[in-house]
UniProtKB/TrEMBL annotation:
This is cysteine desulfurase. Its cofactor is pyridoxal 5'-phosphate. Keywords: Iron, Iron-sulfur, Metal-binding, Pyridoxal phosphate, Transferase. It comes from the Bacteria. PROSITE patterns: AA_TRANSFER_CLASS_5 (PS00595). Belongs to the class-V pyridoxal-phosphate-dependent aminotransferase family. NifS/IscS subfamily.
Length: 399
């Protein structure tokens, strides 16, 4: 186990608990990237330097395939899960058909799905979830009964709550209706085992930086034999079997591969240890803060992810009161947005409660001391924010 230490000396005392936003770079990934950066060569060139670059790309493809339980040739490298999601939805969608997804997807799915279906005669169906984040299947059953579903996209694990999606009934309904199935596995890969030889999905998206690889690189799995047409977003080259034009990011891909291999080797130990640390965190918070509520606690969840609602206390104020803790008030990709979490609203939380929710996400380098400090900092912040809010609400005694 590595200990995460910020490079910036001014942040040396920071406790990093925002792995769902991005994980610290694993040292294996850093070494692979530095080695690739010291070399020169375009992976499409036929000379020795080009062949060396291509060999690094293919090694990474093999390393990622081992983590996913698929064939290397089923993987397309992208700039990340956002691009992979857009590729998957555009490839799977047919004009005039139905695109079905869930109401709690990442914006990279929801916004892409809305854009894809906006201009044509097709229909977007957003499946609701219950209070525990479980997907309700009735609208999908109705859509599949119409026989016009083109593609169904449902995430494996939610980025805000960590709630896992039961894909099996979704896959069954979709495939019986002749539809493709895509899953955004960005938060799942590298944290829990996945075997794509057993999970019968057609398309899978992921990003390297969620499991200790570099930012700006990801992949799309396209099952061999699936009826998925090529609909590339980028035109101008034959790279990645025509799925994605452009010179390959060899150092980034090398880092992805090395992180995938490290995640695979340590997966069981890391997931077990991080799940136990999450238990310590949640017990510490709920035992000391009576108004604390854990979202999705009755559902299967990712190791290390907890969504904590502290009613009546604005999340941004709480985070400001504990600057030594790197956590989130929701998805980092939506930070600064004027609206509350669409995930929490879909789960039935009120807007005030959604605005009073923190997300802690632990990972491979988290230690028990980090969790203890996070508990103490949160309890302290709750007291400070409550005191400040009480003082602000009290009428002035000045004449």
């Amino acid at each position: 186990m590595e200990r995460y230490v910020p490079i910036d000396p001014d942040r040396a005392e920071e406790v990093y608990l925002d792995y769902n936003a991005t994980a610290p770079l694993r040292h294996e990934a850093l070494e692979a990237m530095l080695d690739a950066l010291r070399s020169v060569g375009n992976a499409s060139s036929v000379h020795a330097a080009g062949r060396d670059a291509a060999s690094r790309v293919e090694l990474a493809r093999q390393q990622l395939a081992r983590l996913l339980g698929c064939a290397p040739g089923e993987l397309i490298f992208t700039s990340g899960a956002t691009e992979a999601n857009n590729l998957a939805l555009r490839a799977g969608y047919s004009s005039g058909g139905i695109l079905a997804t869930t109401a709690v997807e990442h914006p990279a799915i929801l916004e892409a799905a809305r854009a894809i279906t906006a201009d044509g005669p097709g229909t977007l169906v957003e499946l609701p979830v219950d209070r525990d984040g479980a997907v309700e299947l009735a609208p999908l059953e109705a859509a599949c009964g119409q026989g016009k579903v083109a593609i169904v996209s449902a995430m494996l694990a939610n980025n805000e709550t960590g709630v896992l999606t039961d894909l099996e009934p979704i896959i069954k309904l979709a495939h019986e209706a002749g539809a493709l199935v895509h899953t955004d596995a960005t938060q799942y890969v590298g944290r829990l085992p996945v075997d794509l030889s057993e999970l019968d999905v057609d398309l899978v998206s992921l990003s390297a930086h969620k499991f200790g690889g570099p930012q700006g690189v990801g992949a799309l799995f396209v099952r061999r034999g699936a009826s998925v047409p090529h609909r590339p977003l980028l035109i101008g080259g034959g790279q990645e079997r025509g799925w994605r034009a452009g010179t390959l990011n060899v150092p980034g891909i090398a880092g992805l591969g090395a992180a995938a291999e490290a995640a695979r080797i340590h997966l069981h130990n890391e997931s077990t240890r991080v799940t136990a640390l999450r238990g310590v965190l949640e017990e510490g918070l709920t035992s000391r803060l009576p108004d604390c509520h854990i979202n999705g606690v009755r559902s299967p969840r990712l190791p290390g992810v907890t969504s904590v609602t502290l009613a009546g206390l604005p999340a941004d104020a709480l985070l400001a009161a504990m600057p030594e803790i790197a956590a989130s008030d929701g998805s980092a990709c939506a930070s600064g947005a004027p609206t509350p979490s669409h995930v929490l609203l879909a789960m039935g939380l009120s807007r005030p409660d959604a605005d009073s929710t923190l997300r802690f996400s632990l990972g491979y380098a988290t230690i028990e001391h980090d969790v203890e400090r996070a508990i103490e900092a949160t309890v302290r912040a709750v007291g400070e924010v409550r005191t400040a809010m009480t003082a602000t609400s009290e009428p002035s005694s000045s004449p």
